[in-house]
Amino acid sequence: DAIRKKWLAGMPPCDTESRTLLGDFSPQSFRLVANPTQDDSAERLPETLRSIYGPTMYKQITFVVLLREPLARAQSWFYYGHVPSTVFQASMEDQLSLAANGWAGNPSSSAVWGSYYGHHLGEWLKSFDASQFLIVPFKAFTSGDSSGICQDLSQRLSFNMECGTMTTHRLAFGARHPSVEDDTTAEFRQKWGEFFDPDKELLVNLLAQGHTQGMGLAAYSGKAGDVEDVQKWLEQSW
Predict the structure, then answer these.
(1) Quick check: 224 pLDDT over 70?
(2) In the chain, which end has fewer C-beta atoms inside a 10 angstrom radius, N or C?
(3) Could you give the percent of the chain with pLDDT greater than 90?
(4) Within 10 Å of residue 100's Cβ, how many Cβ atoms?
(5) What pLDDT does residue 227 have?
(6) CA dist list (Å): 114 to 41, 72, 103, 124, 189
(7) What is the CB neighbour count within 10 angstroms for residue 237?
(8) Beta strands 133-137 and 216-217: pairing type?
(9) How far apart are CA 124 and CA 117, in angstroms?
(10) Nearest CA to 168 among 138, 136, 143, 151?
């Protein structure tokens, strides 16, 4: 109850005459879930958020999940907070080793953990309905029909949004860095891929199943619930 009161204190006053749309844009929220070791100290945002909203109001939340290719996301994260004395591949090798050994240490601060999308989405779907999610692959927004994605979101929210040509991707805090291919060896990329393959399979299956239950897949034109079509869409768009 104390957490709920503190959370409400940060909200604007409730206006009963007009509707106000509130959004939280923290990039950390998606990964604040129970880790595979089921450590009791793990942060579990889905359960907390649902308990705060209560047994009926939790259905009013809409989640937008932006997915970037896992290694590319990890590289972007690395250079955003880059320490000059560190090297990207060496850092990822250390983190991948910890993850492969039962997520030793604090996984929530790991670039590897941040890209573990299948597990994360599975945890969120334990607390919220698939129809509450709109999944947006990174390139589908940055290089695709961002205005159309905005319109989709507007419809889901039943809230009028200005989705014109100004709905574009802007790199506000970018850091220049090499391409993933220039920053890593083929051997490392294979090792990374082998580690993430099971999680990617889980993610694709969750997306395919979720799509049949009302989950939005931005710019998806394949068959409803088709695993192969969903995987192709994801690999081409993230």
Answers:
(1) yes
(2) N
(3) 65
(4) 13
(5) 98
(6) 18, 11, 12, 14, 17
(7) 22
(8) parallel
(9) 11
(10) 143
Task: Give the mean pLDDT of 208-218.
Answer: 98
Whole-number Å distance between alpha carbons of 27 and 25: 6
What is the per-residue burial (b if ≥16 Cβ within 10 Å, else e) of 2-21?
A: eeeeeeeeeeeeeeeeeeee
What tens digit of pLDDT does each residue of 172-198 get? Answer: 555 678 999 999 999 999 999 999 999
Residue 196 falls in which region: left (phi positive, over 0), alpha (psi -120 to 50) or beta: alpha
Q: What is the dihedral of CA 167, 151, 131, 123, to 10 degrees?
A: 0
Residues forming beta bridges with residue 66, ordered by sequence position: 136
3-state percent helix, strand, coil for the chain, nearest multiple of 5: 55, 5, 40
Tokens 């250079």 sit on residue? 79
Model confidence at 105: pLDDT above 70: no
Beta strands in the chain, from DSSP E residues, in sequence order: 63-67, 133-137, 216-217
Look-up of token digits 């910890």? 98
Burial of 70 (C-beta count, 10 Å sphere; 0-12/13-18/19+): buried
Local confidence band at 21 (pLDDT 50, 70, 90 cut-offs): confident
Flag the least confident range among 69-78, 138-147, 162-171, 174-183.
Answer: 162-171
